[in-house]
Each structure stands twice: as structure tokens, then as C-alpha cells.
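Sequence in, structure out. Go.
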Amino acid sequence: MKLKKILPQLLTLLFIVIVFGFFTMNAQENMGARGLEFGFGFLKTQASFDIQFSLIDYDGSHTYARAYLVGLLNTLLVAFIGIILATLLGAIVGVARLSPNYLIRKTASFYIEFFRNIPLLLQIFFWYFAALRALPMLEDAPMLLNSSFMTIKGLYTPAPIWTNFDVFFTTIIIAMIIIFFFARYAKKKQEQEGKRLPVLIISLAIFIGLPLLTFLIGGVDLSWSFPVIRQMSQSSYTFDGGLKIPPELIALTLALTLYTATFIAENVRAGIQGIGKGQKEAAASIGLTPGQVLKLVVMPQALRIIIPPTTNQYLNLTKNSSLAAAIAYPDLVLVFAGTAMMQTGRAIEIVGITMATYLTISLSISLLMNWYNKRIAIQEK
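Output:
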């Protein structure tokens, strides 16, 4: 019996090894015939090209490995911002879809049907080539909130300048650890004694209070650099100081957020409707308000239905960020699988690294969400 179970798996594994080995040998023979060598030594050589937007220091004198890191960080930035915003928007729209108010319900339905039925690439083009291109030039841009400028070249906003930021960041990590153990203690106390502690209020007090103490006793200081327009020539202007957010990042983030939020909203709606009506009525009968019913009874159970399909949307958003190359946002695909590959000719190595990177990011998101799904699962006795 064991042989019957193991034999198909062994044959499948053997088939995969043979196919992989065949293509590997074939690639080596073709590369050898053209005088090409396989290896990753090129990552240490000078890249000799610039990148218009980078979260870390970079110029043409840095290596291809540094260029890969720049593209990776830019990809992670879009994915992180997009996931956060799409989750918030999707949750709001999903709840609005079930609102008894006719106008709110129909508005949410229109938003979902409109944005999810337009191709994502077309939405990216709209925000970049239509909406953002209609913004004024630098010298004509009005000031927003007495500090920022929205222009055709991007958003110029105040930039923070920190002193002893490492102390501030360390305190935030410590606060999160304290909140984690306090939440566990509060949950245990509620299960054993039936006493419910104000976890949210205390957690916010810890998360805000501890970092604020670093300004008083930790030597932490924060100042702001504001953008100031400067005329370089008769028709050329620029901003000094502040932080510039490029239009490519804005357009890509808007498109990914609005598109992915429609699917998350439907997941939220399905999760809420998957909870029996009797439980809602029972919760209301003991005096809970509609908001309390949603927060304490419906959502804890609905999350078991919401999280698995929402995880797929997080993965889709991360992979869809590769469409950034269409508007020249310097993500991993454009910088590494585009410019770097054309300059080095190392197609197999670069494509392999890029595929492995996206696979690693997707598996990491999947593992994190699966861990959270198990953590909130209702334990049956």
C-alpha cells in the first residue's frame, strides 16, 4: 500500500527533474555555442544608468545588485501602500453595500461595478496620462494646506527631518511588543473571569505615549523641510527642500487601490452575509447596537470567510504592480528585468532572479495571512 502511494509521487518528481535537466543542458549548449557564460558575477559590476526615483542612495556608479535593491524596494513600496489603502477602502465599501440607506448602497454598488470591469492597465493610463497630466506646471501650482504643491511633475510635500530616529523607532517596536502581550493578557482575563478590559484605548495610549516620551527624555527631535519654488531659468522652475512623490507612483497606487478594493469589498460583503441572521438578531435582542453587533459578533466570524479570498487579492495586487513598467515607474521589472537585462544580456539569470523575487514576496504574504487566519479561527472544544 505504501508503494502505491509513494510511487506516483516519485515518478512525478523524476519527470520534473528530467524536464528541468533537459532545458538546463539545452540552455548551456546554446550559450556555449554563442560564447556566453552563466553566472551572477555581473551583479558586482557598475550599472552605469540612473534611476529617477529611489528610496535609498543610488547613482550610475553603483552596482547592478544595488539597482536590483532599488527596484525591489520600489515594488515593495507600491505593494505595501496599495494593500493598506485597498483594505481600508474595500472594507468601507463592502459594509456600505449592505447599508439600509438606498443612496449609500447603490453608490457602493456603482463603484464596484465600474472599477472592476475596466482593465487595470487602462486605469493606470487614465490616472497617469489623463488625470495627472492635466495638473498645472510648477510655477502655476496652487499651495495645498499651506505646505504642499500638486503639479504635473508630482506631489511636493513637507519632508520630516529626524534627530535620533533609531531611538524613536526602537520605542515603537517596544510599544508593539507590550501591546501584544497586553492583548493576550486581556483575552485570557476575559475568558477566565468574564472581565473585558479597554484594550483599544490602552493600546493606543501605549503606542502613542511611549514614542512621545522619547521627545522629552530620549533626545529625539523632529523638524520639517518645506518645498520652496526656485526659478532656474526664464522658463524652468524647481522646488528646493521637501519631499517629491513622482506622478508614476501616484498613478500606479491609485489604480491598484481602486481596482483591488472592489474585489475586497465583495469579499467583505460575502463574509458578512455568510453569518446567520439568527446570530445578529440574538445580539440585538440583548441590547447591542448595530455597530456593536457588527464589531463583536459578525466581523470575528466573517473574517474566516473574508481572509482567504482577500489573500488572493493581496497577491494579485503585488503581481499587478509589475504593470508599472507601462508608465516608467522604476519597479523591479523596469529596472532589473528591463534596463539591466538589456545592458548585460544576462536574460536567464535576471529573469530567474526576478521570478524568484516575486515568488518569495507572494509566499511571504501568503504565509503571513495564513498565520493570521489560523490565529483568529474559532477554537472548537
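Check: The mean pLDDT is 86. The longest helix spans residues 64-96.
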